[in-house]
Write a structure and sequence with these properties.
The chain is of the alpha/beta class. It is 17% helix and 27% strand.
Length: 202
């Protein structure tokens, strides 16, 4: 029989007691617990969350990158890149979101957690591909979604919407070729037509 889910505030108290000062912050918003840790403590905290009897987060559900460059309309003063991990405890029927910021914006690096959860493998590759976050200790860190030779990381806030190059099949050369982008950025303003008595309104 599955146990009842742990109340978020109770989980917050449990995590605070378990992690002490390694928990930089623990917030409950919309009944979801978010734990923020430093990059230096990240691997140790994740191992504790997996193994400690009071937490027992056996499953890594998701891991994704984040770019806070334009967060809060430019008022954000923290580090730019972060990884966000969602963990599930089947034993205790509770979940937690763990957020860790990369210490350097120019070359974002975090420890890999594939030694703790094998499921992190492709997720870390995705965060590397789309955000450029390097996961130290990952044994196969290569692009997973973008094409071979792709330049840049398309989910970064400063990546151009049209990209840098476009590709197409060239019938004469009988191969795919890359060319400079020919799309011109434009602003699309919807055309609004007002009709008399539209929808029965006067």
């Amino acid at each position: 029989m599955t146990p009842h889910a742990v109340e978020p505030e109770a989980l917050k108290t449990t995590l605070a007691a378990l992690l002490g000062d390694k928990a930089r912050s623990i917030h409950v918003v919309r009944e979801e617990v978010t734990l923020t840790v430093s990059a230096a403590d990240y691997l140790e905290v994740m191992r504790t969350l997996r193994d400690a009897p009071t937490s027992r987060f056996e499953q890594l559900i998701d891991l994704c990158g984040m770019d806070y460059q334009a967060y809060g309309d430019g008022l954000w003063e923290g580090q730019r890149f972060a990884a966000v991990v969602h963990l599930l405890s089947v034993t205790h029927n509770h979940r937690v979101r763990v957020r860790v910021f990369c210490p350097e914006d120019d070359f974002p690096v975090l420890p890999s957690v594939i030694g703790l959860w094998a499921a992190a493998n492709w997720y870390e590759r995705e965060a590397f591909d789309l955000y450029g976050i390097v996961f130290e200790g990952h044994d196969d860190l290569r692009r997973i979604l973008t094409d071979y030779g792709f330049i840049g990381h398309p989910f970064r806030k400063d990546f151009p919407l049209s990209g840098h190059v476009e590709m197409r099949y060239d019938a004469e050369r009988q191969r795919v070729i890359y060319e400079p982008v020919t799309i011109e950025p434009r602003e699309i303003t919807p055309r609004i037509i007002r009709e008399d008595n539209y929808g029965g309104l006067h």
